[in-house]
Design goal:
mainly alpha, two-stranded antiparallel ribbon, 4 helices
């Protein structure tokens, strides 16, 4: 079930800058919007997000935004690229070719998604 109340972004563009590089004015605007989007993805897909620490939430949304911002328009949609010049060649495979905002498996685990939890159910109704 998703939250209907708006949630403040878990980080600000300054937090992205601390983890990556100084952003231009246009990048700051983009990062601010993406931080809102990344926050909403966590709220919508991670039911136990409120149990995570503020630092964990900040770290994860910043990582999501940096992954997204690393993909430029020239490489959007490219999964593999190869260049050859004479006897030299190089090949690249892009990790996020569509420039998606996404949570990695490790980030989901930090937010309690897919982590098994034990519980006890008294089938005798409390009597012994």
């Amino acid at each position: 079930m998703t939250s209907t109340a708006p949630v403040e972004p878990f980080a600000a563009y300054g937090d992205v800058e601390k983890r990556w590089h100084t952003l231009s004015a246009a990048e700051r605007e983009t990062a601010s919007t993406l931080l809102e989007d990344a926050t909403q993805i966590i709220v919508d897909t991670c039911p136990r997000w409120a149990e995570a620490s503020e630092r964990t939430l900040k770290t994860i949304v910043c990582a999501m935004v940096i992954r997204k911002m690393l993909v430029d328009d020239d490489h959007l949609g490219v999964t593999n690229a190869q260049q050859t010049a004479g006897s030299f060649s190089e090949s690249f495979t892009y990790s996020n070719p569509m420039g998606d905002l996404y949570l990695t498996r490790a980030e989901k685990a930090r937010l309690g998604v897919g982590v098994p939890h034990a519980f006890h159910l008294d089938m005798a109704g409390g009597s012994r």
